[in-house]
Amino acid sequence: MINVATALKFYRVMAYIVGVMLLALCGAMVAKYGFDSPTAVVVVGQAHGFLYMVYLVAAFNLGLKARWGIGYLILVLFSGTIPFLSFVMERNATDRVRKQLAVAAV
């Protein structure tokens, strides 16, 4: 179960990073379309895109180790594309995995 705990830590870090970057991207889009300043979208967009790929690997890794169903795994994978959803799903996935680890420890 140590592998699941390690995968959970990596997933949690990436979920928060991707969530913050997505919010920054939303702010950059407001700057682009509201104030005609496209520079931030290019920089933040590329950073978010790269970090989202790392998030996908982290979530998929955790999903395989925690033996999630395909529906839940897809929901977790897509949660990095909707503002604030990565924070909600991180909490949900963390609770789910911690309960699973507690049952396995007994």
TrEMBL record:
Signal peptide (UniProt feature, chain positions): none
Residue ranges occupied by any DUF3817 domain in the UniProt entry: 8-94
Keyword Oxidoreductase on entry: no
A family per Pfam: DUF3817
InterPro entries named in the record: DUF3817_TM
Topology in membrane: Multi-pass membrane protein
Keywords recorded for this protein, A-Z: Cell membrane, Membrane, Transmembrane, Transmembrane helix
Subcellular location field: Cell membrane
Residues annotated as transmembrane: 13-33, 40-64, 70-89
Keyword presence, Transmembrane helix: yes
This protein's name: DUF3817 domain-containing protein
Organism annotation: Sphaerimonospora cavernae
